[in-house]
Amino acid sequence: MWDVSAGKELATLQGHEERVYSVRFSPNGKKLATAGGDNKARIWDAETGKELLVLTGHSSDATGLAFNSDGRRLATASLDGKV
């Protein structure tokens, strides 16, 4: 993650074992969700970069993410055809 105004790297999120296809901030900006080629979605603390949760269940690359309007739910999409 980067501080765009300062051009400074804030954190590198380490967890996915394959490429990352999608990144989304929660509506309040406190969490970050990522979807990757390791068939998993991950939830991170956007300030600290700490991994909070690993979501499994897809049998192919997780490629898409969307938070609902209050940020309490996350939909994931995959090349396995499941949401």
Structure described in brief:
This protein is mainly beta.
Structural notes for this entry:
With 83 residues, this protein is mostly beta strands. The protein has one domain (2-78). Helix content is 0%, strand content 45%. It has strands at residues 2-3, 8-9, 20-25, 31-36, 41-45, 51-55, 62-67, 74-78. A four-stranded antiparallel sheet has the order 3-4-5-6, with no helix packed on it. A two-stranded antiparallel sheet has the order 1-2. A hairpin with a 4-residue loop joins strand 1 and strand 2 (8-9). The protein is globular. It starts with a strand and ends in a 5-residue tail after the last strand. The model has no long low-confidence stretch (mean pLDDT 96).
Key features of this structure:
single chain; 83 residues; mainly beta; four-stranded antiparallel β-sheet
Q: Mean of the pLDDT scores?
A: 96
**What's the order of the H and E elements?**
EEEEEEEE
Tally of alpha and pi helices: 0
Query: What oligomeric state do these chains adopt?
Result: single chain
**E-strand count:** 8
Choose one word for the global shape.
globular
Helix content: under 10%
**Total domains, how many?**
1
Query: Which ranges are low-confidence, i.e. pLDDT below 50, for 5 or more consecutive residues?
Result: none
**Cα distance spanning the termini:** 27 Å
Adjacency order of strands in the biggest sheet: 3-4-5-6
Share of β-strand residues: 35-45%
Tell me the major beta sheet.
4 strands, antiparallel
Rg (C-alpha, Å): 13 Å
Helix-strand category:
mainly beta
